[in-house]
Specification:
mainly alpha; 4 strands
Length: 528
């Protein structure tokens, strides 16, 4: 491998990019496989208390969020090790921890078998995954950036960004293959195979990464005796670093991650949930579109080498605010036209004195709340009106039978399609185009970021300074997005209401980035 100051050969760069990117794909596969199966309901049904489908879904997404919540702690721990001991060996440790924890999820007995020990074990393993991921991304991104020749860091590191999407695609692909190959036992135990498959990916990752040498920038720092004594402390005391940390957190990490999660996990949950698509069809549409959208991450990373890192991100944020709701309206109209038309033509109105609805409650407190819970489970949009008595009207016509069967019969008579559907090819094409536009927005705001963050911070504290704000931003703003958005949807009865969370975070990120971010393209990470 090339030494500090010398240009790495094309062969060197191919090995650096391929080993770092594949490891990142596998690590994000490990992290996303939980979310992929949570969206289909299997995680909730298996590991959390039975009796309330909405509650199980929210608890499953809460487990998803816990992993993200511990990413900042992993960033602190492994950022410290990366700045003290080196980039290479640190991300060897992180990928090993991730692989073992993921396989562990596949071995945990169900709630029916061991009771509350099941969700407790799942939470512990999600914590381990969060710690590992907190150290992985920064190490891989910095490793590539510190090898990259001047003027190409955006292009080279864009493969790391695309690898995050690749992990999501791989998780969907493995789930679909396992579902088809193990159809007879899928619900019983076949869904565990994708988790156990992580051990195979771990072996491949370790084999590839052990062939790498240390980053030339870190070797130069270590040889000169200039490694930071305490990278964590120095990240907050280095002159000017506080502002860079805040911009990286609220302007970069928070914004890019909610767009990315909205374009993937929110779309998948939206199609499988409120739009009532067949789960396999929804996964194929989302995964196939994500594969097509990989191009945008590479393109915008490459473009940032020419026009700068800031411009694509700021423009991407602004366009997201304009297009977010219209694109989801297009997806909803194409995904289930009958349901969308019924909601417009025959609106559901629930009246009652309180109509208190708690999506986290196993049993609702009053009759009105039980009605809202029923409509929420069916993915039916509703509005509430304060009234002395509890009533339901559909299209202005009162419903006499308020039992679950009576409500479903009234919905069916009003044209609501409550069964699982597969949209016709023309509608699928419309969905793909709309999701591709979301992917383009994600590529514009995510593609340049690995190079940007590597260039923002001094080399001696780069691993810590980059990882801490990135994983706080992505861990909390992004990791809690599925839980918060699903809660808003369940509480409001509006399948589009959860998008307001994305809108608010992106608006904040746009202001911080537009006014607080300085262009970094003239400060290559390879120079230290």
């Amino acid at each position: 491998m090339a030494s500090q100051g010398a240009e790495p050969s094309a062969k060197d760069m191919r090995l650096v990019i391929s080993a770092s990117s594949l490891g990142t794909v596998f690590e994000w596969y490990d992290f996303f496989i939980y979310g992929t199966l949570a969206a289909s309901g299997i995680i909730g049904r298996t590991f959390f208390p039975a009796g309330n489908e909405v509650l199980q879904t929210l608890l499953a997404w809460a487990g998803f969020a816990v992993g993200f919540g511990f990413r900042p702690l992993g960033a602190i721990l492994f950022g410290y090790l990366g700045d003290r001991l080196g980039r290479k060996y640190t991300f060897l440790v992180t990928i090993t921890l991730m692989g073992v924890a993921t396989a562990g999820v596949g071995l945990v007995p169900s709630y029916a078998a061991i009771g509350f020990a099941a969700p407790a074990l799942i939470i512990l393993l999600r914590i381990a995954q969060g710690l590992a991921l907190g150290g992985e991304y920064g190490g891989a991104a910095i490793y590539v950036a510190e090898h990259s020749t001047d003027g190409r860091a955006g292009f080279h590191t864009s493969f790391i960004q695309a690898s995050v999407v690749g992990g999501f695609i791989l998780s969907l692909a493995v789930v679909l293959l396992a579902k088809f190959g193990l159809a007879d036992v899928w619900e019983a135990w076949g869904w565990r195979v994708p988790f156990l498959f992580s051990l195979v990916l771990l072996g491949i990752s370790l084999w590839m990464r052990l062939k790498l040498s240390e980053s030339p920038v870190f070797k130069a720092i270590k040889d000169a005796g200039e490694t930071a004594a305490n990278p964590f402390v120095e990240s907050f005391t280095y002159p000017g670093n506080w502002k860079r940390l805040l911009v990286a957190l609220f302007g970069i990490a928070a914004g890019l991650t909610v767009i990315w999660y909205t374009s993937m996990f929110s779309v998948l949950s939206f199609l499988q949930g409120p739009m009532r698509l067949d789960a396999t069809a929804a996964q194929l549409i989302t995964g196939g579109t994500a594969m097509l959208g990989l191009f945008f991450f590479i393109y915008f990373g490459h473009l940032s080498d020419r026009v700068g890192r800031k411009k694509p991100i700021v423009i991407g944020y602004a366009l997201t605010l304009v297009l977010l709701f219209p694109l989801f309206w297009v997806i909803g109209s194409a995904a289930n036209p009958g349901l969308a038309e019924a909601a417009r033509r025959e609106p559901v109105v629930v009246s009652g004195p309180q109509c208190a609805y708690d999506p986290f409650a196993e049993r609702q407190a009053d009759d009105c709340g039980k009605l809202l819970d029923h409509f929420s489970k069916r993915g039916v949009t509703y509005t509430t009106v304060h009234a002395p008595a509890v009533t339901v009207s559909i299209g202005g016509t009162p419903v006499d039978d308020l039992s679950p069967a009576g409500l479903d019969a009234a919905l069916g008579a009003a044209g609501y399609e409550l069964g699982r559907i597969v949209p016709p090819p023309a509608n699928i094409a419309v969905i793909v185009v709309a999701v591709l536009m979301l992917m383009a927005l994600s590529g514009a705001t995510y593609g340049p970021v690995a190079a940007l963050l590597s260039e923002m911070f001094p080399s001696r504290i780069r691993y810590s300074s980059m990882s801490i704000p990135y994983h706080i931003g992505t861990g909390y703003f992004g990791g809690f997005l599925p839980l918060i958005s699903q809660y808003i949807v369940a509480k409001s009865g509006d399948p589009y209401a959860g998008l307001w969370y994305t809108f608010a975070v992106v608006a904040m990120a746009l202001l911080v980035t537009a006014f607080g971010l300085k262009e970094t393209v003239a400060r290559p990470a390879r120079r230290g």
